[in-house]
Hints:
The chain is of the alpha/beta class and 121 residues long. The protein contains 5 helices and 5 strands, in the order E-H-E-H-E-H-E-H-E-H.
Amino acid sequence: MNILLIDDDPDILFIAASRLESVGGFKVTQASGGRAALAMLDKEIPDAILMDYMMPDVDGFGLMQALRSRENMRHIPVIFFSAKADKESVERFMEIGATGVISKPFDARQLPSEIERILNL
C-alpha cells in the first residue's frame, strides 16, 4: 500500500515515514506541504493519504477540497494527523470527508497499527 504523507515538519515526516516503511511495510511518499502534495498527486495517486491539518501553504481543509474536487481522487481515504484532536475538531474532520484522525503527538510505535485500524486492513 502506498501512503502519501503530508506534513510541514521534517522531523515528523522522517519519523512517521521510517516507522510506516520499516514496521508497517508501507510504501511512503512524502510531501512537505499542501502545494507539494498537489503537484505529486498530478503524477501518482496513492492508496491513502496521511496529512497534517495545519500547514502554512494549504491547510488540510483546502487540500481536502482540492482532493474531493478531482474525480479520480474522491475515493482516496484521508487520515488527518493533527494536534487539534479534540471532539469538535475530529467531528469537523469527519464532516469534510476524513476517514480517521491520529492525534499529535503520536506514538511512532503504534502508527502502523493505527493506520491499519483506520483503513480496516
